[in-house]
Design brief:
The chain is mainly beta and 176 residues long. It contains 1 helix and 14 strands. The longest helix has 6 residues. The mean pLDDT is 92.
């Protein structure tokens, strides 16, 4: 915030002090159930995968631990999708500043791998090929892309000729 002295055309910074007890900035446990955005089921049907509050979780149907796969404060992960072979979970992460398709082992071990290096834009849930070797996704311009599960440059394989809004793009399901 600056103050402009009109006659002299000089700027002077105005000091601002926000008074707070900073209690809202302290780490705390937070219930995520009310903030679930998307959900899916593992190929075995024994676990579910959820995106909530910017993280990706897997949850047992009956017994076992709830796992926060991403634990990424300040990073948003969206649209998790379990691979058909059950080994990986794919999701969009904005860790790099733009949403990139990312995968990580579904059991919570190992590091995440970023599959794409895309520029600005919004993408919707990645959909796995039946053999777990490729992923297809649609972007905000209704273009359908295909990328290998090892990464690389996504190929645009089709696009909608009709205008599609956010809800329609979010619900778009592809058939392999």
């Amino acid at each position: 915030l600056y103050l402009l002295n009109v006659p002299s055309e000089k700027l002077a910074e105005v000091p601002v002090k926000a008074v707070t007890d900073e209690i809202t900035r302290k780490p705390r446990a937070e219930k995520v159930a009310p903030r679930i955005e998307t959900a899916g089921i593992s190929p075995t049907g024994r676990r579910g995968v959820f995106a909530a509050r910017g993280d990706v979780y897997t949850v047992p149907v009956e017994h076992g631990p709830v796992m926060n796969l991403t634990r990424s404060s300040g990073v948003a992960e969206r649209y998790p999708s379990w691979s058909p072979d059950g080994s990986l979970v794919a999701y969009w992460s904005d860790r790099t500043g733009e949403y990139q398709l990312t995968v990580r082992p579904a059991d919570g071990t190992g590091a995440e791998r970023t599959l794409t290096k895309l520029g600005p834009g919004f993408r919707y849930q990645a959909q796995w090929s039946p053999d777990s070797k490729r992923l297809a996704f649609v972007d905000e311009q209704a273009r359908i892309h295909l990328v290998g599960a090892e990464g690389g440059v996504p190929a645009e394989i089709d696009r909608s000729r009709a205008w599609m809004g956010h809800d329609a793009l979010e619900e778009l399901r592809l058939a392999w």
